[in-house]
Amino acid sequence: MSVILETTKGDLTVDLFIKERPKTCLNFLKLCKMKRYNFNRFHHVERNFLCQTGDPTGTGRGGESIFGLLYGQQAKYYEAEQVPVLKHTKPGLLSMVNVGDNMLGSQFFITLGDNLDFLDKEHCVFGEVVEGHDALLNINEAICDENHIPYQDIRITHTVILDDPFPDPPGLEIPIHSPEPTKEMLDSGRIAADEDINDMEGKTAEEIEELIAEKEAKARATILEMVGDLPSVDAAPPENVLFVCKLNPVTTDDDLMIIFSRFGKIVNCEIIRDRQTMNSLQYAFIEFDNPKSCEDAYFKMDNVLIDDRRIHVDFSQSVSRLQWKGKGRGVEFVGGKAFDPNKEDYKMKDQPKREQSKRISSDDHPKRYAPQQRQRDFQPRDQYRGGREHREGRDGRDRREHREDRDGRDRREHREDRDRRDHREDRDRREHREDRDRREHRTDRSDIDNRGRRGGERDHREDRYNRDHREERHNRDHRHQSDRRERDHKERRRSPERSHKQEDVSAQKRIRRSSSPKNSHRTK
Predict the structure, then answer these.
(1) 77 with 142, same domain?
(2) Residue 399 burial by CB count (10 A; 0-12/13-18/19+): exposed, middle or buried?
(3) Angstrom distance (rounded) from CA 227 to CA 233
(4) From which residue to which does the signal peptide run (predicted)?
(5) Is the pTM of this model over 0.70?
(6) Which residue range(s) make up the domain with 125?
(7) pLDDT tens for residues 91-150?
(8) Closest Cα to residue 287, out of 311, 251, 263?
């Protein structure tokens, strides 16, 4: 025996347990035939547990059985059937609600979870859903408040009896049409079942984009709070902190302090640096004492040229200075002290001990990392110096180092060119010698034939030995000359004055040798 329950979430086809629960099935079928379940809403929905309906008032305290309609208030409820025992073992089982003392009325619920054994002795199972489980899943996913009441009404719109084996009791008047719902039944204070929920209706495209971005930001903040990266969902970055990026590596904290201090009092200014090398990461945070100064700097300093770099300015999105004080006690903003251009103690010195233990002062970095870095990477920055003079000195040092590197590269290239030239000359001499050997070999062979084989071979070996000896001496002299030229070139590159002195000494020796008596006698 089947009944179709048409709901706002879909149709549910129910099979009734006629043999096991005849009285309960009679009550349910006749109430469906009297249209008593039409427009009843599911007033209690618990996800993966149950959804309850059957109360015309929608409060969970109303509803009466078919016997109460026929025989009066003394028969409003009837006693539940307990034999045989039917258990709540799976989703989709229909069970009558026990109103007390094992009495039943018109309210029933549908299970949404497995193995609900604790309901077996209290409530009476009388049917199951055989079709429409997708509608049951939609009901299970309904959004409810803390009292498990759905924000949008879910109602039974109509009931259709496919088969009724029970005869109608005397005095039962079946309505021809479905009765109209009363105003009290429809006025639940919730979103109507047929109402289209559209938050974007009547808004412009910009407002819709802003609303979507706000929802996405809130969802991300919730996730960050769950993983522990945010102290609370409502935590927001301070409005008086400015983010500056695309800085020149030579720009210092003092430079930014002086440049941005014209917009207002600066509480703290810090260029973020590498922990080991203390080199600038080319972005900084500037904290003003009020949001108005921060806004003025944002509108005036974006794309401004500082140290030959176009900087970018934006409001800070960092919450690193928000310190969580504990559950229910909120957060505390850890800031610095006001900036005075005439003083040098504007750095953050009144920090908590926990943070001071993590931070290494600029004076300790040269001692700690001196073996790893060059000395110029650890210039003390606790005293104000002329930024331009400091940069000019550093630029001059960089130019000298670049010039030395270029000279070294030129020397390497010169040496490589000389090696390639020597290699070509050796190859040419070797080919020339081989050609000459082949010509001489042909000549010698003809001579040997004329003079005799034995004497010709001995002469040929002597000639070849003498020729090889001369070539080896020539190559040795050529290598000595190349090495001497290279040494002279290095000496001239290393010390021009010394080379000039050597040339002067050589010239004096030549003059002295030419003016000696022996040479003068030879000249005569």
Answers:
(1) yes
(2) exposed
(3) 12
(4) none
(5) no
(6) 2-186
(7) 999 999 999 999 999 999 999 999 999 999 899 999 999 999 999 999 999 999 999 999
(8) 263
